[in-house]
Automatic annotation (TrEMBL):
Pfam families: Glycos_transf_2. Keywords: Transferase. This is Glycosyltransferase involved in cell wall bisynthesis. Residues 6-133 form the Glycosyltransferase 2-like domain. The keyword ATP-binding does not apply. Gene3D superfamilies: Spore Coat Polysaccharide Biosynthesis Protein SpsA, Chain A. GO terms for molecular function: hexosyltransferase activity. InterPro entries: Glyco_trans_2-like (IPR001173), Nucleotide-diphossugar_trans (IPR029044). PANTHER family: GLYCOSYLTRANSFERASE, UDP-GLCNAC:BETAGAL BETA-1,3-N-ACETYLGLUCOSAMINYLTRANSFERASE-LIKE PROTEIN 1. It comes from Paenimyroides ummariense.
Length: 313
């Protein structure tokens, strides 16, 4: 029987999480699916733990380490189902996650992209319910302004997204040249071309515990970021897209500023409409990088106690 869903899990050194992640998939109330785990050259015990599972729906593909984009694309290339769901190896689904997608697809069969609601775990015992601008709580249906609705929290989060395989066949997959925000790049391309629907329930837990390392020690992910300027012409006539892109231009610019890379920071900021930079953020750009690094460490420590905030909105 052809599976209704193909679940794509990229795996690289997630021995701490992979068993729990697979268990949450195999415990789904909707069971017509296949699981494709793409082992992206793991060097820890991830593969050993993975091979303890004997479920016939599990398929393991091995490749040398090429990054999460290539791993996800490999999974999509091998997917048998028309509908593809993504799950990162440290996130978890509630048992009704696939059933919620199945029911929403039955009600809205025409769109190519479906977004599930999710909660964000920022500490061991702290979970944040995310809200989306102009999308009421428990609403199920079309997202009328994807970019505006995503200004506070992203409507499309990788582990809470389901796409029709037509998208992969028509526009391709994730950009393997990007070191960071490959998913952001992909969702923008999809949102500009296809209709999007959101489910009504929170069915996924996004693991945001200790995800942000000190920027001063992790410069590699800024070597190749999403090319936000490829949308110059479109954003001229799309106010929501312009504001959405400016939010990320500001974020990238501030990250470079924290690293002490002034030239790269200014390169992003010069394309930002000044009305889209709030007062708090302007103050941060006036502070020296060493102060910002101290503030960043403080923010990360506060998150461990369940306290989180943003300066971009």
């Amino acid at each position: 029987m052809t599976p209704f869903f193909s679940v794509i899990i990229p795996l690289y050194n997630k021995e701490k999480y992979i068993q729990n992640t697979l268990n949450c998939v195999f415990n789904q109330s909707f069971d017509n699916f296949e699981v494709i785990v793409v082992n992206d050259g793991s060097t820890d015990r991830s593969l050993e733990l993975l091979e303890e599972f004997s479920d016939h729906r599990l398929k393991i593909i091995h490749q040398k380490n090429q990054g999460v984009s290539v791993a996800r694309n490999t999974g999509m290339e091998n997917a048998k189902a028309d509908y593809i769901c993504f799950l990162d190896a440290d996130d978890t689904w509630k048992e009704n996650h696939l059933k919620a997608f199945y029911d929403t697809i039955a009600k809205f069969p025409d769109p190519k992209m479906y977004c599930g609601r999710y909660v964000t775990q920022i500490s061991k015992n702290t979970f944040i319910e995310n809200r989306f601008i102009d999308i009421p709580e428990n609403y199920e249906g079309y997202v009328t302004d994807f970019f505006k609705s995503s200004l506070i929290n992203r409507v499309a989060l990788t582990s809470a997204v389901c796409i029709h395989k037509d998208i992969f066949n028509e526009i391709g997959g994730f950009d393997p040249t990007l070191k960071s925000d490959q998913d952001l790049d992909y969702w923008i391309k999809i949102a500009l071309k296809y209709k999007i629907v959101i489910t009504a329930e929170n069915t996924m837990v996004y693991n945001f515990i200790n995800t942000n390392k000190s920027l001063s020690k992790d410069q590699s992910k800024f070597n190749k970021l999403t090319n936000l300027n490829q949308y110059f012409e479109i954003e001229k006539s799309n106010e929501s897209l312009k504001l959405f892109l400016d939010v990320y231009r500001i974020e990238y610019g501030l990250n470079y500023h924290i690293l002490g890379l002034k030239e790269q920071s200014l390169e992003y900021l010069k394309y930002v409409d000044q009305k889209n930079i709030n007062f708090k953020t302007k103050l941060l750009f006036k502070l020296p990088p060493f102060v910002l690094r101290l503030m960043l460490r403080t923010k990360q420590n506060l998150r461990n106690y369940g306290i989180d905030f943003t300066v971009y909105h």
